[in-house]
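Aim 2 progress update. The chain analyzed this quarter is reproduced below.
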Amino acid sequence: MGGTFDPIHNGHLVAAAEVADRLDLDRVILCPAGQPWHRAAPPVAGVHDRFAMTELAARADPRFTASRVDIDRVGPTFTIDTLRDLRAGFAAHDPETSAEWYFITGADALDQFMTWKHPLEIVELAHLVGVTRPGHGLRNPDLPDGRWTLVEIPALDISSTRIRELLANGDPVDALVPAAVAQYMERHDLYRGGPS
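Predicted structure tokens:
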């Protein structure tokens, strides 16, 4: 599951757990983006803080693990590079075992999928999973047949942008992020410097 995770929040974790439950996944790898290619502005928190928060959040479920694959790579973060690197690492670690790969992202991101770098290779490497709120689908389902799934997740009105706004105003976010993430943000004074 890729994302900027600026910061990671309970909505991300619920989506990851729900997809893992519905698709019977053994593991969900949470990959904070290093330099998101599709964002005009850079993330507010640095890569090391975003990874640390992701690592803390991954403790919420034994199926979750955090990966540095995207933050250790120089240059923009592209899904194709993430999948190639993760698959190569998995094959090197356990060459006798095959695995079916899924790439979890928001359905809104899948609407733009055919503009991604090497989209047809991506669907060769992984089955796409778009998460969305009930009643919301893909606006432009121009995706390769049989290589994507849409999973409706119970509506959680949580966004990283809203969390940053609350923190900038000095408001609590304890119900929106894991306790360890809230403590990390407090300890490192993240997102308190005004609008973000």
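The first strand starts at residue 2 and ends at 3. Strands lie at 2-3, 28-32, 64-66, 102-106, 127-132, 148-152. These observations will guide the mutagenesis experiments scheduled for the next reporting period.
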